[in-house]
């Protein structure tokens, strides 16, 4: 997207269906609420990511103009990837207070909206002062963002996550260009990847096929919207969907034209991707995996229910693969890198253990009810590089059975 090139600190405001010009002086401001009682419930946030021009803004504009009866706060990234949102978030962590709060504009359908340039964190913090005026946040990242770096900021009870909880990640994919992006990277990225390949010759870790931003955005997604269906044939679309599925066997995949999702619930809102792990979530991934994509795959480890005395060993397995990128017991293996992890582990005489992970952050909880897995097997689904080696299961079994 174009955007303006001035250095204005105040972001442009977005009216329904319009693109900011950067020239508006009469900016509507939200009336400051005087009630400053602390928030009682956490507000869910869905991160909307996807490659440059894939249709993120189109999706959010669509939501802003539809009558859906919801009060959604939308943070639009109207400036392409000029500033990387990951950097904005990091800067805020270090208490830099230069960014001015971004004004939110109330819209006719009950939503409020703000358009950010380089004030991502300030926008969210400012937003939290208007609690009660909305009940959901949608955040557009820049096209080159790695959602794996952003997700942990909103997940678990620290940082920005204290008043917000991560509901999930929606990735827009450009049906026309995504295969090329996966194979070659994009623009400057392709050059960077070439450089990295050269470096690899000098003993660096990144051997093998390219890991592009497009891979990262798909592998971390809870929902993938394959957009711009009007620009491809049915066969091409099928190929794209299969490639996406081979990378991420956990995500819901839907095809869209002009980012018009058939429904918001479950596709953009209320994904519960980080606070639930249902049997159904893992069912699809368990149906075997494909190697359509040379870089990233989804792999499911199936093993018997564990006993309470094995819980520590199971946790050690998770810590080792996620924190050290190693298998316990020094098992030989190819290099791997885990982007996303989900599991349901039945515990004999106990409740099912639910496991959630993104990159090296993970969380285990007990299922609240006494529900069991349909087939009573434990399932651990891994998405990432090199995760489909038999050594994973062997090492897990060995870890669980050694004292
Ligand atoms: N043909 C076609 N064009 C689309 C579709 N969806 C969006 N577009 C157009 O694609 C262009 C980019 O869409 P945006 O929604 O701005 O994409 P974005 O992901 O927000 O882009 P950046 O913020 O620049 O990364 C716009 O001109 C849209 O009108 C679609 O389904 N088909
Ligand atoms: Zn955009």
UniProtKB/TrEMBL annotation:
InterPro entries, A to Z: CobW-likC_sf (IPR036627), CobW-like_C (IPR011629), CobW/HypB/UreG_nucleotide-bd (IPR003495), P-loop_NTPase (IPR027417), Zinc-reg_GTPase_activator (IPR051316)
Region (Disordered): 1-26
Domain spans labelled CobW C-terminal: 336-398
One GO term describing the cellular component: cytoplasm
Alphabetized GO MF terms: GTP binding; hydrolase activity
CDD domains the record matches: CobW-like
Start and end residues of each CobW/HypB/UreG nucleotide-binding domain: 44-253
Composition bias, Acidic residues: 1-11
Keywords: Chaperone, GTP-binding, Hydrolase, Nucleotide-binding, Zinc
Catalytically driven reaction(s): GTP + H2O = GDP + phosphate + H(+)
Superkingdom classification of source: Eukaryota
Family: Belongs to the SIMIBI class G3E GTPase family. ZNG1 subfamily.
Name of the molecule in the record: COBW domain-containing protein 1
Source organism: Periconia macrospinosa
């Amino acid at each position: 997207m174009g955007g303006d090139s001035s250095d204005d600190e105040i972001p442009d405001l977005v009216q329904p269906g319009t693109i900011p010009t950067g020239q508006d002086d009469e900016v509507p401001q939200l009336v400051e609420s005087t009630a400053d009682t602390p928030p009682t419930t956490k507000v869910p946030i869905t991160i909307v990511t996807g490659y440059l021009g894939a249709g993120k803004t189109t999706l959010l504009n669509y939501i802003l103009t539809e009558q859906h009866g919801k009060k959604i706060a939308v943070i639009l990234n109207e400036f392409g990837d000029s500033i990387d949102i990951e950097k904005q978030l990091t800067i805020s962590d270090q208490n830099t207070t230069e960014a001015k709060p971004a004004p939110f504009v109330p819209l006719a359908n009950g939503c409020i909206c703000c358009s950010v340039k380089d004030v991502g964190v300030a926008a969210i913090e400012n937003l939290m002062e208007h609690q009660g005026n909305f009940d959901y946040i949608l955040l557009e990242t820049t096209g080159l963002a790695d959602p794996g770096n952003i997700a942990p900021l909103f997940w678990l009870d620290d940082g920005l996550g204290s008043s917000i909880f991560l509901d999930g990640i929606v990735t827009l994919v450009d049906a026309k260009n995504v295969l090329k992006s996966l194979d070659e990277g994009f623009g400057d990225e392709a050059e960077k990847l070439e450089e990295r390949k050269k470096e690899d010759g000098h003993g660096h870790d990144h051997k093998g096929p390219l890991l592009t931003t497009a891979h990262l955005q798909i592998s971390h997604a809870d929902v993938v919207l394959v957009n711009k269906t009007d620009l491809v044939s049915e066969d091409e679309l099928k190929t794209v969907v299969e490639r996406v599925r081979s990378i991420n066997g956990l995500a819901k995949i839907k095809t869209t034209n002009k980012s018009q999702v058939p429904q918001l619930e479950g596709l953009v809102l209320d994904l519960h991707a980080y606070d639930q792990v249902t049997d159904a979530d893992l069912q699809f991934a368990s149906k075997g995996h494909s190697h359509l994509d040379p870089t990233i795959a989804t792999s499911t480890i199936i093993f018997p229910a564990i006993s309470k005395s094995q819980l520590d060993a199971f946790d050690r397995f998770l810590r080792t693969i996620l924190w050290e990128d190693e298998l316990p017991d020094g098992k030989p293996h190819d290099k791997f890198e885990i982007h996303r992890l989900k599991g349901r582990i039945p515990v004999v005489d106990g409740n099912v253990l639910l496991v959630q992970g993104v990159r090296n952050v993970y969380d285990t909880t007990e299922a609240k009810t006494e529900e069991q897995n349909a087939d009573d097997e434990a399932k651990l689904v891994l998405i990432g590089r090199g995760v489909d080696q038999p050594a994973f299961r062997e090492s897990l079994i060995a870890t669980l059975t050694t004292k």
